[in-house]
Amino acid sequence: MLVFSGNSEVLNPRGRISRLDFVRNNMSIDEVIELNDFYNKHNLDILGDCIKRNPMTHPKWCEYEGDGPAIKVVLLGNSYTWNHHKMIIQECRHQVKNFTMDSEEGCEPLAATNLFPGCDKKLEDFSALLKAIRPHYAFILSRFYAVAEPFTNNVMDLENDRVFLQMRAQLRRFLPNIRQKLYILDTIPRVIDQNVQNIGRDLKKGVSPEEISKTLYTSDGYERGRLRHAALLKECFGKCEIIDYLPLLTKNFTVLPQFFDDSGISYFTSLGHLNRKITKKFQIAMSKLEPIWQNLPIHFKTSCVEKLDYKSRCSLRKCSKLDMHIVDISSNHLNSLAINTYENYSFLSWSNDGDTIFSVKYFKNLGESDMKIEFSASPSIYLPGKNQKSIFKKSIFLENLDPDSDDLDFVLSDFKIAQKKLNCKKSIINDFILKEYHPIAHPDRTMEFRERLLNQMTSSGQKNQLKSEILHLKWHKNPEEIAEILKIFDSKNLKKLEFSDRNATWQMAEIVKTEQWIKAEQLWMEVMAEDLKIEDFRHFSEIQMHIRDLEEKDLWSVIQNFRSKNRHGASFHFTYRQGEPDLQRILATFDVVPDDKPIRAATRIRSILERRINHTQRFQMPNPDLTLVVMIADKEVWGTVCHVANVDVEAKVETGMLR
Amino acid sequence: MSSTEQGTSSAAPAEPTTAPESAAAPEVPESFYYVHGKDKVVHKVSAGALQHSALIHGMISNLGYTEEQAKANPFPFENIDGDILQMVVDWCNQHKGKPTPPEDTNLPKQKEKLFDLVLAVNYLEIKELLTYCCKQVAMMVKGKSPEEIREIWMIPTDAEDEAAEKEAKKRAGKEAAGETAAAAGDAK
Predict the structure, then answer these.
(1) Complete domains list, chain A, with CATH
(2) Which of A10, A315, A352 to probe the B interface (max B CBs under 10 A)?
(3) pLDDT of residue B5
(4) CA-wise closest residue to B122 among A447, A362, A392, A298
(5) Which end of chain B is more exposed for a tag (fewer CB within 10 A), N or C?
């Protein structure tokens, strides 16, 4: 963003502050005449410290160094470029790193006139400059020749107008090389230059401003240039802006434009060029603070961040300290987040919407300063023949990293960033996944990973509880650690607990005491629980768990509990790992006559799954529209509260087989 | 339901023409208010349309203006460009008394205009329009790299920011020294 202060003041060589246009308050008419003469004398002064980097190939390219950040500015055009360059450089040198000027007598960047030989070739040179510099801002500052030429066949039909078509072609070459903005000085009427020197003197003689204006103006068709510029602006995709001096000249408009101000100070020189009096208006036109991201209200910015996908958030976070802060205080809506480590790499993955999984693999060993990062995306469900297994995969290499860090440091650091976002009270994480713990495959590494992850998650820096609907936890048996992890999650949001440690037996006493266990509604346990009592999981409306064995009276207690819940969709499923359900003894506990009424599976797969069931018993519910369907197989017992009319569809025969 | 005409000043707004009312005119005559932006162009807007703006709604809820009083006292929003205020007024009219749709594709694509609209809408407290703007602003950088985002939203790096701040301080110091020298010179 270029900001023109518009106050036109700089330090003069004696340390005094003066206006760039040298205008002072209450100037006498003699001082005005002197100033106009001064303007005429210094009509085409050029700043002296111009650097010519390509004197052989591009002798007119003239560079000036600013002392600002990496912003680059290009000024293109003819003598008007010279008229403006001092002011622009003086105004913006603290904001700009490099100014490059290319000015050619009589030639315009957008269209070539035949009045000056070589202007058609110069079009190429203007374009080459923009391509070489790729400026943030470009200014076209030209006295009109070609752009205000008569229309082709004297008809304003721009689609068939030679000049306009050339302007359009040039614009299309320019725009890709201009990063932010192209400013175009609009055409204004020319002055009859030999009379400029008389303005002040005539005023002194008492000639009226109207009479003086008559000596300065002749119809020159400048309006055609304005029409062409206006049409061109529509093809700029918002990248162009017009700088217009005409309102200044027509401020006192009666019949003719006035080329001088009320005190007689001319806007033009005796060569028909612009002087500092008028270019000061350029500063004012540019002085409006450009609306930029930094100036937007913070609550709006956080709302925008919340609408970004996770990768874009991470990109924005790297832009500046302020943006890092904005991202960190903005809610982070993820569908799932997972962290993991393997033998040779660590792994972080997330999904914004549940459809696509993004993952990052970090490959880095201790003692090395390079790291390979593999970024990939894949569908959450791969359907052979219907979608691609991988959407994309790309690798990048980072260098000069700390050799004392390994991939665990990086994955944990990135996970911590995700945690920071989860700290926000407004965070809603639908599916927070910690999974794939492999203690057998790489015991030392996974033990270290587990310890560091636990430390990080339970560190004192963790101010707010994580908000997640589901916690999938694959963790080696250590009830204290598991209880600690549970306590990190906000029990108000945590609806489902998923525990996975297939070959271990857990002591549940510490875990069932946590608020998170007590308030959760769904339980999925692929783990053997040593000391779990029926009372401990009576409150769950969906249960899917592995058990060593289950006494018939306990199963009956569960069935009665689900009947009393009287809730549509509630379900339980037990996988017997050691014992087997004894059908006759189970049926003997029922308070109804055993009656095997299998469901009629509507699909082939349900039909296959249903074949493993030995007995299907239906129980009446307090709500007559509902029924509890209990199914007993060789190693499983499950029940689903279904609508009476919809049992065949709603009974969860898939549970335990399909995940 | 509204129209726009060039006014001259906030004290003496131009007479706005009344847009043709729909064929099925409401039984109770609707009240209208007048607003203008930086360009002094006065917009006639119905109270129903202005309900979108929490700011204006709060201002007019207890006014009880007659048509003449409202016309003589347009709400001046000097901090809002005329074309931006026009956009806001058009949006309020378009969504008057209707549930807002999930998407609005008529927002400006040009960054500066969109950011100007955001500032205006935020000031006028038009929640739904701000949400649309927010989606559009977010879309500008979706999937972009940090470098691309910096370029699109014109975010200086921290190093650039610090350098600019340092330079500004240095410059202010120099100017202050110049002023002091000038004052000393004048005193002589």
Answers:
(1) 9-286 (3.40.50.1110), 550-659 (no CATH)
(2) A315
(3) 38
(4) A298
(5) C
